[in-house]
Amino acid sequence: MRIFDPHIHMTSRTTDDYARMAEAGVQAVVEPAFWLGQPRTNPGSFTDYFDSIIGWEPFRASQFGIRHHATIALNPKEANDPRCRPVLDLLPRYLAKDGVVAVGEIGYDSMTPAEDEAFAAQLALALDHDLPALVHTPHRDKARGTQRSLDVIKESGIDPGRVVLDHLNEVTVAAARDAGVWAGFSIYPDTKMSPERMVAILREYGPERVLVNSAADWGKSDPLLTAVTAAKMLANGFSEDDVDRVLWRNPVEFYAQSGRLDLSGSAGDSPTFAGNSILRGGS
Ligand SMILES: [Zn+2]
């Protein structure tokens, strides 16, 4: 089984996670830029983070045979902080880089005017840079947030086939399907979407334009829930080909629209990145 986790924040995960993911069949990941829990206080804090998710983190992943790409954006939550907004001017420099396969995560957190502005501005950047967009839907007031996100996406003029609307559930999936965007589902350990519920949604809506991710980060989450969902699909009558489609070919197709998805071999030939290795004890 080959798995592509299209949304996972590996910078907050350990090497044990990478090892377990590789063991479970995860061969590729996309790491969207997001907030870190601790509020950032200036744009320089973002640039170091962006450099890390397009430099050090792909190297770390490569040590486990996993391909790593990133998406770059000012996240919805920090779009509300005037100290962070100047990072919008720095984004074009990053959106031109090789390992960047989409603009994201963008969208709404609390649906404020500042979020409106950052969301629209970054969809425009996606168009300018000919990149897909990864749009996060709010965890509170999700139905309204989803509809409003779809309105903003439509107004932007971006092709809906180049947008994934993420963190969907049973209530919001139909609107996303109708709008022609890709439907993203984040599988969580205790709350929100579970592997069982995901299988039920796949049964009802089919595997087309569906992306399944773990969205694992520094919060309570599990990077193996993509593999658990794949096993649940097989146990519930889906074929190996269905599983390969949802957990590999779909994310490949979506991010290949960037023209930058590189799944050839492993970048792990070099044991060091800028002179630093993931090893300890002087080797
Ligand atoms: Zn995320």
From TrEMBL:
<protein>
    <recommendedName>
        <fullName>TatD DNase family protein</fullName>
    </recommendedName>
</protein>
<keyword id="KW-0378">Hydrolase</keyword>
<dbReference type="InterPro" id="IPR032466">
    <property type="entry name" value="Metal_Hydrolase"/>
</dbReference>
<dbReference type="GO" id="GO:0046872">
    <property type="term" value="F:metal ion binding"/>
</dbReference>
<dbReference type="InterPro" id="IPR001130">
    <property type="entry name" value="TatD-like"/>
</dbReference>
<dbReference type="GO" id="GO:0016788">
    <property type="term" value="F:hydrolase activity, acting on ester bonds"/>
</dbReference>
<dbReference type="InterPro" id="IPR012022">
    <property type="entry name" value="UCP005295"/>
</dbReference>
<comment type="similarity">
    <text>Belongs to the metallo-dependent hydrolases superfamily.</text>
</comment>
<keyword id="KW-0479">Metal-binding</keyword>
<dbReference type="Pfam" id="PF01026">
    <property type="entry name" value="TatD_DNase"/>
</dbReference>
